[in-house]
Amino acid sequence: GGNPSSTTAAGSGGRLAVFADEFDYWLGKATAYSGAGSVTDYTGSPGSVYYSVLNNVRNRTLIIDNNNKLPFTPGFQNNRIKDLTNIYTDTGRSWLMDLIELDEVRLINGGHLLVNPAIIDRSLTVGKYVGDQTYTPSGALHVVNQQSLYALTPDLTDLDMSTYSYPGGQVYLPPEFYCENVIISVQGTLGAVTDLTVGPGCELWLSAQGTTHNSGVAGVFHFDSLTLDGGKIFRVDGDQETFITIDADTLVVMGGGLISIPYLKITSMNVTIEDGSNIVANQTKVNVTNCGNLQTEGNYARRGQGLTAGSGPTGGGHGGSGGRGNYPASITPSDKVGRAFGNVYDPRFTGCPGGRSSGLGGMGG
Predict the structure, then answer these.
(1) Is 291 a residue whose pLDDT tops 70?
(2) Which one of 178, 214, 221, 357 is least enclosed by Cβ atoms within 10 Å?
(3) CA atoms within 13 A on the CB side of 199
(4) Which residues contact 229 (CB under 8 A, 6 or more apart)?
């Protein structure tokens, strides 16, 4: 792809195809990198390199490689496709516009691949996927509605590329599976895997729309065993006020492991949480819509909400009442703070925001 001038955007990589009966002793390299933008957001998408070589046995290889140039800041939220239906607004991914049978797909150096979402009645057959596990995020495959990725070969115990499944998309992994230095995002269905180990550098992102094949219930993820061996579990839809349930017969969170999910339920028969690990259910959103069960009392918009004031606003309540602040004495004491609410053994609601000089303040617990 071409490099831009000044602050204009770079071009994407092109398409290169090589067909040969024999292919020996070539030490060169064929590339289809995008151009480099003057700032990160202006960088183009990777192109594609395709080899079809006979050498007695036909080998068809597709390479998506963007030379570690990403048109977005590295990080999970920036890698998600914003509009699955509009090819004109997507950037950062190489699009496979038609389906062919492939022996190998290499997604490396930040190369992201998306099969055209309009293709829903045919299959893309791939012998194996190759990633790099060296760049965060590594190469990645995006699986959208009515598309499925089957990675079920008997000798596959880990995956060296990231996968993003969207609502209606399905990713099938081996029953016993280990991930390291990749992202596995589940807004669709995570299938086949029953014993999952989330290793160092691996991030598992769950959503209230996603599920596992042996659950079938949106927002419920069932495993026979789930082990965090230095890996992390987060929430895709962090601002949604719906529960995500991790249902594991055996749950082990080893040192360095992290589960950080607002609105989290964990059901398990055997739980081990080692020293140095964390399970966090903090809410990150300030102006929630169901705090305190939507019950209006007195001067409160909601039961546990703190009182807004030009000076001395009060704190929000939940497990206890909020801080009193320095609200004028003319206000009755019962209206000074966010009240306690909720059930000790069946918590269902987020804490309520405190007050501030205008609008709502920070979240309660």
Answers:
(1) no
(2) 357
(3) 12
(4) 197, 198, 199, 200, 254, 257
Chain CA centroid to CA 150, Å: 19
Cis peptide before 137 (omega within 30 of 0): yes
Query: pTM for this one?
Result: 0.81
Per DSSP, which regions of 166-295 are E strands? 170-172, 176-179, 183-186, 189-191, 195-198, 203-206, 211-212, 220-228, 232-235, 244-253, 258-260, 264-273, 278-280
pLDDT in tens, 102-127: 888 899 888 888 888 887 666 677 87
**Of 247, 137, 148, which Cα lies nearest the Cα of 184?**
137
pLDDT for residue 72: 57
- Measured from the Cβ of residue 263, the count of other Cβ atoms closer than 10 Å reads 20
For the chain, how many residues are written? Answer: 365
| CB-neighbour burial class of residue 261 (10 A; exposed 0-12, middle 13-18, buried 19+) | buried
The answer to whether the CB of 53 falls within 8 A of the CB of 22 is: yes
Rounded to whole angstroms, the Cα distance separating 161 from 148 reads 16
